[in-house]
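Database export, one record per block. Field names are fixed; values are copied verbatim from the stored entry.
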Amino acid sequence: MESLDDIPAEFDAVINCTGGGARELVGDTEITPLYLQVIKVAANGFDKVVVDDVGPNAMVCIVPHEDYIGVGAVITEGSEKPFVNDFDTLGILERASKVHPDFRSTPWTSSMWSPRRVPRAFTAPRPRKPPYGPMVAA
């Protein structure tokens, strides 16, 4: 779809799920890109959601899921980096280890950390539009 004019007239409503593509689709110049990097680590029984978005550990969030724990994040405004940055991964893991004691003795922190030991690190571009509110991702 290149234009909202391409939508058949038979529909009463349209849900725009184009994300950053809305800049072009509807000419919304207020939408800016964000780069987001998050890590998935193996579930270890940790069952609390922890978010620290202020102070020296900002930004870190730890979100348990059934079979993994999401640990994040690096959020950079104005960037759509398409690759996992190992230095960002290290920063995320180090901050997580400082925020909650359950992450201090894990095999992915400090001197034992290695990019090969992280089960999955991934990036995703996200759209952002003012007014900016809090953003949590893990």
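Remark 1: The CA atoms of residues 56 and 95 lie 9 Å apart.
Remark 2: The chain is about 15% helix and 30% strand.
End of record.
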